[in-house]
């Protein structure tokens, strides 16, 4: 009997080239609210849920009454790009190749609603995506294990039979905490050393590079 396996993917910065769009739109949202937050610090926080990102960057002593307005401003600014979000090279091809090899494909992302729909449209691989664990589905976002665990539950697999691919430190920490194999890509702009320190078992330039080396990857080890 063939063991069911799950290939779980982060989306922003992993399958779709959006991290720097998030940096710019969060920077503008903070600026409009009177906060000066360096773009480098925002970049390091991309991948957190909106609420966690705000706490991470502004601290616990901020006025929490402003959080909803900041989130809404970011969403409105980022939504102007929804019709032209760029998938990274081979994103759809990688998902289809893994699906053809028997992997259940699930997304684990802090995006939800119209944003998630726009991202999935950019990837253009809904025919092989089983489902997604979004910010609406879990109590805590990455680096908590909840999104990865929820994705596994969608695929109905144990942690030892799952691989999670992401581009941020938060992704790697979530994968480690859930007990799945963490694989990183550099397409989100986070340094290799940071990803490895957070637990990445292997690091690739991007999903195109991962696809080219699929037969010698963690995925091959589980086949």
TrEMBL record:
Keywords: Hydrolase. One of its GO terms (molecular function) is hydrolase activity. It is an enzyme of class 3 (hydrolase). Its EC number is 3.-.-.-. The keyword Hydrolase applies. InterPro entries: HAD-like_hydrolase_sf, HAD-like_sf, HAD_sf, PGP-like_dom2. This is HAD family hydrolase. It comes from Streptomyces sp. 900116325. The lineage of its organism: Bacteria, Bacillati, Actinomycetota, Actinomycetes, Kitasatosporales.
């Amino acid at each position: 009997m063939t063991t069911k396996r799950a290939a779980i993917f982060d989306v922003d910065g992993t399958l779709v080239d959006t991290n720097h769009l998030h940096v710019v739109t969060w920077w503008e949202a903070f600026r409009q609210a009177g906060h000066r937050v360096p773009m480098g610090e925002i970049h390091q926080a991309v991948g957190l849920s909106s609420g966690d990102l705000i706490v991470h960057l502004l601290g616990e002593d901020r006025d929490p009454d402003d959080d909803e307005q900041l989130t809404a401003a970011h969403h409105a600014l980022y939504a102007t790009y929804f019709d032209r979000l760029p998938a990274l090279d081979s994103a759809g091809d990688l998902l289809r190749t893994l699906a053809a090899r028997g992997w259940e494909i699930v997304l684990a992302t802090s995006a939800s609603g119209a944003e998630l729909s726009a991202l999935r449209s950019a990837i253009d691989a809904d025919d092989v995506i089983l489902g997604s664990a979004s910010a609406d589905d879990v109590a805590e976002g990455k680096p908590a294990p909840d999104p990865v665990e929820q994705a596994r539950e969608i695929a109905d697999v144990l942690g030892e039979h799952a691989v999670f691919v992401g581009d941020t430190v938060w992704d790697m920490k979530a994968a480690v905490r859930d007990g799945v194999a963490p694989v990183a890509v550099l397409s989100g702009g986070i340094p290799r050393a940071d990803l490895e320190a957070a637990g990445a078992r292997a690091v690739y330039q991007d999903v195109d590079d991962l696809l080219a080396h699929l037969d010698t990857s963690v995925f091959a080890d589980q086949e």
